[in-house]
Design brief:
It contains no helices and 11 strands. It is an all-beta fold. The radius of gyration is 14 Å and the shape is globular. The N and C termini lie far apart (about 40 Å).
């Protein structure tokens, strides 16, 4: 049974920082793309950042220069370092991975709440 477990959300003041983690566990052959999405109340889920197996990254325009995505392949874990947080960053953050077991499965984390107060 492969699953994703997230941690690191919480309440922070505007301008502060948080670091999210998402670890995959179970029978894993390989993981290619790892992504972070977020969903604010009343809004659609949106892609925040992604990182490929080759360490190429991409970011939503709204977080460029403030957020950094990274991965630890030995631990099957993806991180999202969030700096200079703004109230508009408030959302539930989800990790998303396509995992080879070796058949491919797309999995979502359970979500972690990030709340930024003004």
């Amino acid at each position: 049974q492969v699953q994703l477990v997230e941690s690191g959300g919480g309440l922070v003041q505007a301008g502060g920082s948080l670091r999210l983690s998402c670890a995959a566990s179970g029978s894993i052959f390989s993981i290619n793309n790892m992504n972070w999405y977020r969903q604010a109340p009343g809004k659609q889920r949106e892609l925040v950042a992604g990182i490929t197996g080759g360490i190429s990254t991409n970011y939503a325009d709204s977080v460029k220069g403030r957020f950094t995505i990274s991965r630890d392949n030995a631990k099957n874990t993806v991180f999202l370092q969030m700096n200079s947080l703004k109230p508009e960053d408030t959302a539930v953050y989800y990790c998303y991975m396509i995992i080879s077991t070796p058949s491919y499965r797309a999995l979502w984390g359970q979500g972690t709440q990030v709340t930024v107060s003004s």
